[in-house]
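Q: What residues go here?
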């Protein structure tokens, strides 16, 4: 068997291929961040940049802004809190709620991450040009199309 099993998989395994690509980008991005002595996980860069622009954001605001579940946003904040990038403080609007702010270390990290993110934007735009496709835009269109008409609806129409 010369060809790997996953190379034989059809479009029914789109999620498998998307996950492999996502994992590869995260792995390679994480390696670059480590080489630059940055501590923010590759999967949390968007969170750090959001908090830099939105001081005292709640987890709910973060989840909504990034289009992730409240649980996912909480996990990201917990990770960033453990490494000293963010801290929770009392919310100005609701004393029962907690807001999230960047620490001094977090603000320093953002200043180092900004040029990296700009460089990665250029690298990934070149990658998309190499592919002959605006992959980022295409992935977002696919996500919106499935939100509009889920797989279940599409499958029922096929029957």
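A:
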């Amino acid at each position: 068997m010369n060809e790997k099993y996953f190379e034989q998989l059809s479009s029914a395994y789109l999620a498998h291929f998307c996950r492999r690509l996502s994992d590869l980008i995260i792995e390679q991005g994480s390696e670059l961040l480590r080489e630059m002595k940055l501590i923010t996980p590759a999967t949390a860069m968007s969170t750090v940049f959001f908090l830099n622009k939105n001081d005292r954001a709640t987890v709910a605001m973060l989840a909504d802004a990034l289009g992730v579940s409240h649980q996912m946003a909480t996990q990201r904040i917990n990770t960033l809190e453990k490494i000293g990038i963010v801290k929770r403080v009392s919310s100005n609007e609701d004393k029962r709620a907690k807001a999230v702010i960047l620490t001094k270390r977090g603000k320093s990290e953002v200043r180092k991450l900004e040029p990296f993110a700009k460089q990665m934007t250029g690298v990934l735009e070149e990658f998309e040009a190499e592919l002959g496709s605006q992959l980022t835009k295409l992935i977002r269109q696919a996500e919106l199309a499935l939100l509009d008409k889920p797989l279940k609806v599409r499958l029922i129409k096929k029957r």
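A: Context that may help when evaluating the design: The CA atoms of residues 63 and 72 lie 8 Å apart. The chain has one domain: 11-158.
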